[in-house]
Amino acid sequence: MTKERALAYIDQHVSYAAYEDFAELYARVFSRFDFDSMTPKEWDQITRNEEAERARRRDVWFLAQNGLMDPAMGRAGLHEAAIRFPLWEWLKIAPVKDSTYYDAIVDHSNSDDFRSDFWVPFYTKFNEWSKDKKSPHEI
Fold this sequence. Notes:
Layout: H1 3-18, H2 20-30, H3 40-65, H4 71-90, H5 100-109, H6 120-130
């Protein structure tokens, strides 16, 4: 990962702390798992954030796949994408089905190497909660 990429990622998350409303919103989803308290407008904010996360994860994976970045960073990016994948699917922002990136995420999600470690509570609780919930982006 380049220094510029690392600093941009840090800047993104530091901005959450400065923007109190988004920091609280982000915590409700990813730390407190209070999904039912979210309004459609708040899910829209999370969607925009997750679109950026998806693009960042795909970029890192792509660069690593093409020898332009440390393969370990590509694996880490793919792992993070697999953790967020159920959320991306529910928000209707998952990568295009049958694309190389989509297939890589699904394959990793189903591999013995996949574990959601730190994200276990979010991954588990979101999967359980979203089973019978309609996405705010469904027509």
